[in-house]
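In this section we walk through a basic example: taking a raw amino acid sequence and producing a predicted 3D structure, encoded as discrete structure tokens. The instruction is simple. Fold the sequence below.
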Amino acid sequence: MKEIVAEISELEQERDKLEAELKKVNISLAAANARLRNVREERDQFDEANNQILAHLKSKVWVFSCP
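The resulting token sequence is shown next.
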């Protein structure tokens, strides 16, 4: 019976250690996902600004090239 109690105690300690490690991983994963969302949003804003600049420049080229 002592062996089983000791085994259960060891397994509970291992479980607690793994749960703490999992919590750290989940926190890191959430932070990485937040950074990814921010980078994607910044890229989308950059692409939109870039498209607006290109459209503006094309309109200027079109005006200068028309007789």
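Looking at the output, two observations stand out. The chain has a mean pLDDT of 93. The chain has one domain: 1-67. In the next section we compare this with other chains.
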